[in-house]
């Protein structure tokens, strides 16, 4: 009985929230609001077909359940790549058959974004195929591995002795290639990455074949296990040699120990166009410097109020010393959350589903993760970054100083409600077919709340204002250092020094931020998406709320209900902007 009552309560909660969102949309205009009807099915069918093909053409896993399948490497077999290209072409034809002119505004947005994504997916698959083809001389044995997997998928019994012979020959070939690779002087970064992905996929494929036949096929079980173990070890060693080529192939221009791949200006512009940001990298840097100038002026006001005159760095240093003792950070975060949620409700800023408010939680961040994420993170839970017993004294102090309550006051909104926690909650419940995720919406929306809270004087004391200004300066710095790095103008060490000298970061925290920004496959636009996306939402707020067309709550609920997409498309829906099927970004949203 209790379970039935709980289920009923959850259903009512979801229904109430959906009703609130529908009400918000009804208030956007006097016209009846009708969500898109034509596009969701097409987008969902593509997503389902893509998942099915990705599962089928990837190595199966003996640990997978009846539904789904094994882990899918990001780069698969040529067979898989070709089939996924065919899928994209099929849906491009289906999309071309849609009558764009007679679509509703929301459907037109979905059409434009789906068309963009299909085009970019095709480009990605073609690029991937070309990169894999470039490596054929280093992976000549791959076709035989994939051919065996093709037979395995349909259960054909292999010639076990022939398999053992082929795999033994591969081991010899790999060892010869490994020696040759060690002598190779110049290998580009993309080839290093692709080789690692393909070798990982080959190992998964071999394991898939082995798991299927071993123990079931008597001859396979007699001939293959020993040679499979040796082949897997040979591939692992081969992948290790490729890894040693990484540092020489990647950007290692100083002694910071941070290496990465520079995107280049042309690629940055292409990605900005895709994200519907009609600004050049240089223009974005100029905007960031203007924002910095505003921060400087506000910092001086707060510094003078604290008695430090124009020495704002001394005032910042004082604020850093106001950290809580070890063991008290979760308690401090809860206090900040309570203040933030009370402020949102008091000012009637956004609909807050009771279930979202009930179910957020806390986790502690590991020391290893703090090396690349020195501040807390958020989503379903808030992940707290604070010292542990294994950290050196200097690292402990920098972590506590960098996560003091005044720095954290506004960013609790960013990570929980109305930021990432609420975004995730709503996105899984409204217009779930939309998969146009972008950091300019995800991080931009969370950052937007920091801008709104400043305007609404959420920070009452100069210490709290300095905490908010520190983060605003940090977002400005992210734009400047990430773009300068990717255009080849700055080294990682210059980026670190900039964060320390210009923003006032603790050095270890600055190193963590820069390492996070450039290592691995971190998207080159991600760091600049925070303030840039925030300014987009802020400009749209001025257009709709400051003009009196909507209340804060109506605007915020409407944004939430539309799910993730480029902010220019949010604006197109809410303000009924003219759209064409070959739409190009044109919204110059930044006003000084």
Could you explain the architecture of this structure?
A two-stranded parallel sheet has the order 1-2. With about 600 residues, it is mainly alpha-helical. The chain is built from 27 helices and 2 strands. It starts with a helix and ends in a 17-residue tail after the last helix. Helix 1 crosses helix 26 (about 550-560) and helix 4 crosses helix 7. Helices cover about 65% and strands about 0% of the residues.
Number of strands: 2
Strand order of the biggest β-sheet? 1-2
Strand content: under 5%
Binned, the helix content reads 55-70%
* Average of pLDDT: 89
Number of helices: 27
* Biggest sheet layout: 2 strands, parallel
Shape: globular
Ends distance:
59 Å
Structural class based on helices, strands and sheet pairing: mainly alpha
The SSE order reads HHHHHHHHHHHHHHHEHEHHHHHHHHHHH
- Sequence stretches where pLDDT stays below 50 over 5 or more residues: 6-15, 24-32, 61-73
Radius of gyration: 27 Å
